[in-house]
Known about the structure:
Elements: H1 4-26, E1 30-35, E2 38-43, H2 44-53, H3 58-66, H4 71-82, H5 89-96, H6 99-111, H7 121-133
Antiparallel strand pairs: 1-2
Helix pairs in contact: 1-7, 2-4, 5-7, 6-7
Amino acid sequence: MFNFTKKWQNILLLSLSCLCFSLPSVAAERINIIWQSLRLTLEVNSLEQFADEGVINQELDFYLQTAGLDDEQRKSLREILVIQYPIDGVQLSKFLNTPTGEILLERLGILVSLPGGRNGKYLLRGALIQAALDKEKALV
């Protein structure tokens, strides 16, 4: 049986994790997520405010409610957004250029698309590597 809430949780958490990891380098103002015929956008400021202060504005609250995240899961998401991950940028680059890395980027690029619906895998690859090389940044 199709579990709509669980699927949305997975999509939201995966998208936010990958997107937020790349945000410091990309400096985007909005996150565009396209899933099937649904196009979602989220202001980066909403995530920054949530990560820094714990404040959930109306826009972010809509996505968190849609994903069915309870208070504990929201707290976990906030913790994920501020963690600094010690990732070697060179190793990450090598991984993302393997067949497995390409498949991962291709699938994430469907969710994290460019304006016009184009796959965002190349943008993600560059942003993830650049963010991994910047040791001063957390996810947001």
